[in-house]
Amino acid sequence: MRKTTRAAAALAAVAAVTTGVTTANADTGAAHDRGHTAARSASAHDGGYGYSRVRKGVPDSAARFAVSSPDVRDGGTFPADAYADSFGCSSGNRQIRLAWHGAPQGTRSYAVTLYDPDAPTGAGFWHWLTWDIPTTDTALGGTLPTGAVAGTNDAGQTGYLGPCPPVGDIAHHYRITVYALDTPSLDLPATTPATVTTFTMSSHVIGYATLTASARR
């Protein structure tokens, strides 16, 4: 019941923020339109979808630490077997392995996400969310650490969902992020929508490590 109530409260907060943004947009009129135009990608080859920046969920005060992967390097491309096995892709959907170090003092748990800001949804696409990772674990492979929660991605599935950008679209730049949190648990059930999870998490982030890899079809 506690987790359900917490998720419901977070969802209400997201709705309130969204309502406030909508009202502000209506008030600013032409200035709002100019802002969105300026935020679009300079690329003329965007697949016809257009591009707008999505607001980040990490505070400017958050410390940086390091993350690496034996499967993909920062600025590199996803290996073929890590692509999705759905949405028109038929690859292995092999979860990317991660290891990290140097998290700030005060870290009480970790969370990991895989996010595609280039997805043609207007809000990006959350491919992978895992939270409540104990501080005794500084790596993530095929086995979930004891106590960790495998969350629900934007496809409504639990666990990792690899890249599968639309055929002919621009290269999508997938952000893999490890978050250092100041709480041992987000108190959220695995079924919590990705947006609610990341909204709840945003107020607990004290550090982060990230690498970006691209995929294109």
What does this structure look like?
The strands form two sheets. A six-stranded mixed sheet has the order 1-9-8-4-5-7, with helices on one face. A three-stranded antiparallel sheet has the order 2-3-6, with no helix packed on it. It starts with a helix and ends with a strand. It has helices at 2-28, 30-39, 194-202, and strands at 63-64, 66-68, 98-101, 109-116, 125-133, 139-140, 149-150, 172-181, 205-215. A hairpin with an 8-residue loop joins β4 and β5. The longest helix is centred in the first third of the chain and has 27 residues, at 2-28. It has 217 residues and is an alpha+beta fold. The chain is built from three helices and nine strands, in the order ααββββββββαβ.
Short description:
This protein has helices at 2-28, 30-39, 194-202; strands at residues 63-64, 66-68, 98-101, 109-116, 125-133, 139-140, 149-150, 172-181, 205-215. It is α+β, with helices and mostly antiparallel strands and 217 residues long. Strand 4 and strand 5 form a beta hairpin.
Protein topology:
Elements: H1 2-28, H2 30-39, E1 63-64, E2 66-68, E3 98-101, E4 109-116, E5 125-133, E6 139-140, E7 149-150, E8 172-181, H3 194-202, E9 205-215
Parallel strand pairs: 1-9
Antiparallel strand pairs: 2-3, 3-6, 4-5, 4-8, 5-7, 8-9
